[in-house]
Amino acid sequence: MILEGRTKSFATIAHRDYDYFVYGLGFEMRSPKLASHVNSSTKIFALKMPERKIHSYDKNVSFAETRGHIIVTDFRQFISQTLPKLFSKENKSIRIAFDISSVNRIMLVEVVMQIARFCRAEDAVDVVYCPASYREPDWQFPQIERIGPINAALSSMDADPNKPLCLILGLGFEAGTSMGLIGQMEPRLCYCFWGTGVDARFDKAVRRANFEFDFGDFNTKEVSYNLKDPKGSLEQLESVIYGLRRTYRVIIIPMGPKLFTFLSTLVGMAYLGSVAIWRVQHTPNNAPDAVPGEYYILSTMDCGLLGDFSRRERVMVESYRTLEPVA
Amino acid sequence: MASMNTIRHFESFNARFLKPREVGETFVRPPFLKDIAASSNTAILGPRGSGKTTLLKMLTLPALLSWTDPGRDELASQLDYLSIYIPSTLTWNADYRRFSGAELSKPVSDLISISLFRHNVLFSLLNAWREAARPEVQKNEYLKRLSLPIYPEKEAEFVRKLAKHWQLEVPISTISGLRDGISERLRLLQRLTVRAGYVGTQLEQLLDDWPFLGAHFLDDCCAFADFIQDAYPNIEKFALCFDEVEIAPDEIANAILKMPRSIDQRFLVKFSAAPYVGISSALKGSIVPTQRQDYTFVLLSSYSTRETRTFSDKLFTSLAGKFWVARGADEVLGSSLIDDDGSDGNQIASRRYHNAGAYQRRFKALVETDRSFERYVLQKSINVNDLTVGTSNERAALIRKIIWPVLIREEFLYRPTVVDNASQSKRRIRTANAISDIYTGAASLFAICEGNPRQIIGLMEPMLRAVEVGAVSSSGTVRRSLQKRLVERMISAYFALIATVPIREKSWGVGSLVDMISVVGTYFKDTVLGREFNPDPVLSFEIDDQLPPSIKELVGRGINIGAFVLADVTKAGGSPYHLGDITGLRARLSNIFAPHFRLPLTGGRTVNLSTILRRAQSHPPPQPLLELFGEKL
C-alpha cells in the first residue's frame, strides 16, 4: 500500500504542492513543524488534541491561529463530513498529506481509514512523520488504564477466538510495558518490533525499557525495522503476519513511534476482520515533550490499494446482516 | 538424559498451553494434592503461577498415566471419579467475541455466553470419554476402573444417542463427527454474536430462531452421566473440573460457584480461581459459596515454610536434571543466612550464634552502630558476644525472633563509610545499592518465590544455565552477583506486570496497584528501618471495614496477581470463609518485594490498611523505577 517511502528535509515539503494538509495540534514542540513548511496555498486542518496546557501547547495554538489553519475541535464531524467532502469533487483529483507525528493513535487510525474509504485512484495521498530528537525517558512504570481494540473495524471480528494468541508488539521506551503486557496476556507467541535508524540513543533506550528483549520464559522474537524505510518495514510486518494468521489469532499492539501505528493500521486494513489492532492507554502523567528532529519521513500511498479496503469492509458488514436462521 | 520433550515443557511455564499428558511428564508433587484429589467439592485458590491449572490437569487420566512419581498409583487407586477438565477461556464471553458493533444487551450477552460455555463443556465431556477409551487406561492396574472403551460396532449408536441428548446435528455418526457438530455450533454462535452487535438482535427473536440457545449445560452433564452409566456400569461418579473461573463471564462463574447445590449427587465440582473471585462478592446471602458447606477451599499460597522449602527443593532437582546438574539446591545456590536457625540440631546453623558466627557478628556490629539497638540489648540483657547463652527456648524467645530486624538494620543502616581520609569516618544510611546478599542463597531465593512454580522456574533456569556452562564461583555455586541480578530483574518484571492491572478509580491517594504496593512496602520498611529498633515490625495488614470498596477491589486484584498474600483463611476458626469477602482478612506483601523494600522474609505485626493509606496521603512514597536500584539491568 506504500508506493514509496524515504526521509526528506523539511524544506522539500513545500514543493509537494498539497491541496490539503492535516496535522495534530497538541503540546509537542514538533506538532506544527511540518505544517510550518507547507506551501502557503495549502489548506491546513489542525486537529486539536485534548487540551493539555504543557510544553508548547499555547504557542502551537497561537501559531495555528495566526497562520489561518482551520482548527478542528469536533473530530467526529471532521471524520464523517469534512474529510469525505474533500474527495467528493468530480473530475478533480486532490493532493493530501496527513502528518501523524502529534495525533493520538485513535485519531491516526480513524483518519487513515477514512482517507482509504474515500480516496480515488487518481488522488495523491502522503503520510508524513517527523521523528523526535532524543530525550532521556523518566523510567517510571507507566500505569496502564485500558487496553483493547483501537476501533471496531480493526477488532478482528472474523478471527477464530479459539486459536492461540500471537501478539505483535511495537516497542517504544515505555518502561516495562511490553513485559507487563506479555505477562498479562500470556501469548503463545510474541513478535517484538522495534524501530531503528534514527538515533543510536533511541535504540539503547528501547532496549533498556524492554529488558534487553529478554522476556524470560515467554516465546518471543525480536525484529528490528528501519524507521527511515516505511515501505520496507510494512513489507516486513506484513510478511510476518501473513504467515501467522492461519495458526494464530493475531493482535498488534503498536507502541513507540507513531509510524508503527500507521504501518499496523495498513496491515489491519489489508487483513480486515482477521487481525486486530489494540491500543494501550496509560494514565496521563508528565508527558514528555517531542522536539522535532532533522528530517521527516514520507510515505506515498497507493490509492488503488487503499480503496480495496473499503470494498472488503462493505462485503464483510453485508455478510453479517444476511445471516439466516436454521430451519 | 533429559529428552527434548522435557525441555520444551519446562520452557512453557504456563500449564494452560500444555496437554495433560505433558503436564504429567514433569509434574512435581506439591502439598495439598491429596486434598485436591479428594472425593469432595473443592475450590483451588491461588494467584498467577501457583499451579492451579497443573493441579486440575493432574486429575485427568492422560496426566496420571504419564506421571512417573512413585506416589502416582496410590493417588490413582483413591480416585473414585472420572475427571472432566474444562478450561476457561475469554471466548466464553459473548462480548469478547462480538469484537465490533454496538454493545450487546445484557440478556443477549448472557444467553450467548452461556451457550458458548455449554458447547465448551460438551467438548470437554467428549474429550474425557475419548481419553478414557485409550487402551493405556485399560492396561493400568489402578486406572482401568475408569476405562470407557469405544467398541467400533457400538460407536455409531453411542454417537447418535449423545447427539440427540445434546440437540446436535452431526455430519457422520462417529466421535469425530460429534466434535464437528459442536465446532459447527460454535461457529454459528460466533456469527450470531457479531450479527447481534451489528443489527441489535433481540432476546426473543434469538430464542425463536435458534431454540438450542435455551438448553442448559447441567442437563447436558446429566444426560452424559446417564448415557455413560448405561453403557459402562463401572463409572459411578464424575468430577467437573473448571479451570480459571475468575476469567469466566459473571453469569458462568455464578453458575459454577452455585453448582454443588444444583447438580445431582453423581457429580463433584472442582474449580480453580484466583483467591479473590469478584463475582462472589456480588452474590448475596445464602448463595455465596462457603468453606466446608459447599466446597473445601485449598489456598495454594498457604504452604508452611517447611512445605514450601520441600516442594521448591523437589522442583529445583527436577529442573536441574534438564541442565545435567545432579547437585541439590544448597550446593548449587549456596547457603543463606536463613537456611535454618539450628534449633533442630543443625550444627552449621547453630554455629552462627557462636562467637564470630554470622549472627553474632551482625548483632555485635549493630550494637556498635545503632544506639536504639544498644538500648534494647541492655534492656533485655542480651549478651551479643555470645548468643548461645541459655536454652533453645530462651534463644527462640529472645534472639531468634529478632534475627531478621537485626540482619536488615545491620545491612542497610549505619554502615560505616570512610570519607576523605582514613582517619575520618562518617555514618550514613545506605541508599542505592543492588539486592543485598541476605536475599541470596537457596533458602532466601526459595522464600522469595514462596513455592510459586512459575517464579521458581523463571528464576532458576538462568542460574542453572550458568552452572551448565561452568560460569560459577570458585566454590562451584552460582555467583551471588548473578543471583542478585536475576532477583532484581524478576522484581522489575513483576512491577511491570502489576502496572497492567487496571484501577476503577483513584481513591485515598492510590492511583494504581503499583502505588498501593509502594505505600504498603514503604510503611513496612519504615517499621524495620526506622529511627528506633523495633523487635516486632509491622509486616502485614488487615483489610479493615473502613476501606472504600474501590480500595478493597484493588487489594483483591493485588491478591489475584500474587502481589498480596492472604493469611490462610481456610484454616481459620470461627465463621467459615465466604469466597470473595476479604473484609477482616489479614494479608501481607509477597516476599518477591522484600529485596526492593528491604523487608524480612518472615511474618510480623499487623495494622489496618486504612491506617497505612491515611499516613501515606501526607507522605507519598517514591515510585519504583525500571532499574530498581539505579543500576543498569
Explain how this protein is built.
The complex is a heterodimer of chains A (327) and B (633). Chain A has helices at 57-66, 75-86, 105-118, 177-185, 200-209, 230-244, 258-270, 303-321, and strands at 2-8, 20-25, 43-48, 70-72, 95-99, 124-129, 144-149, 165-171, 189-196, 220-226, 249-254, 275-282, 296-301. By secondary structure, chain A is an alpha/beta fold. In chain A, the strands form two sheets. Chain A has a seven-stranded mixed β-sheet with strand order 1-13-6-5-2-3-4. In chain A, strands 7-12-11-8-9-10 form a six-stranded mixed β-sheet, sandwiched between helices. Helix content of chain B is 48%, strand content 8%. Chain B is built from 29 helices and eleven strands. Residues 1-12 and 418-432 of chain B have low confidence and may be disordered. Chains A and B meet through strand 7, helix 4 and helix 8 of A and helix 7, helix 11, helix 24 and helix 25 of B.
Strand content of chain A: 15-25%
Structure summary, number of beta strands of chain A:
13
Determine the most extensive contact between two protein chains: A-B, 46 and 52 residues
* Arithmetic mean pLDDT of chain A: 91
Content of β-strand of chain B: 5-15%
Largest sheet of chain B: 5 strands, parallel
Q: Write down the secondary-structure element order of chain A.
A: EEEHEHEHEEEHEHEHEHEEH
Shape of chain A: globular
Class by alpha and beta content of chain B: alpha/beta
Question: Quick summary of this structure?
Answer:
Chain A is built from 8 helices and 13 strands. With 327 residues, chain A is of the alpha/beta class. In chain A, the strands form 2 sheets. In chain A, strands 1-13-6-5-2-3-4 form a 7-stranded mixed sheet. Chain A has a 6-stranded mixed sheet with strand order 7-12-11-8-9-10, sandwiched between helices.
